[in-house]
Amino acid sequence: MGRLQTEVSELEARIEKDTARLLRENRNCVFAVRLAQFAQKEIDRVREQTENRGVRFDCKKGCTICCRLEVHVLPQESFRIARKLRDQPNRESLVAALAEHVATHRGITETRQRKFCPFLV
Fold it and tell me: How far is the C-alpha of 82 from the C-alpha of 75, rounded, in Å?
């Protein structure tokens, strides 16, 4: 594993541990949402630092490759997703589409066999 990968893994483990501790200590929705906002800013900061070190991300508008990947989210990300879903006028159908997507892809690891994520618009 390269140095950058090791740093990312260590950062990920520390963030997960710190997030779990903070959520245990502050059990309310407002804190969870603010923590998610802070986490997103931190992710953006780390991404910028990584790019400044010469690492380039291939993602760009119109690319849909990650929409076929298995995605894992941190607790704070799940709160932000839930909040966005709550504000959607078609949330029931979107939640149903997500549930079907999860059920359909359970156990599938081959990216080409996966359908696009229901969030892809």
Answer: 11
Do 81 and 73 form a contact (C-beta atoms < 8 A)? yes
**Does 1 score more than 60 pLDDT?**
no
Other C-beta atoms within 10 Å of 82: how many?
A: 15
Q: pTM for this structure?
A: 0.47
**Backbone φ/ψ region at 87: left (φ over 0), alpha (ψ -120 to 50), beta:** alpha
- For residues 94 and 118, the answer to whether their CB atoms sit within 8 Å is yes
Per-residue tokens: 9: 């893994």
- The model's pLDDT over 11-23, given as tens digits with 9 standing for 90+, comes to 888 888 888 888 8
User: Helix (H, G, I), strand (E, B), or coil: what is residue 27?
Assistant: coil
69 and 22 in contact (C-beta within 8 Å)? no
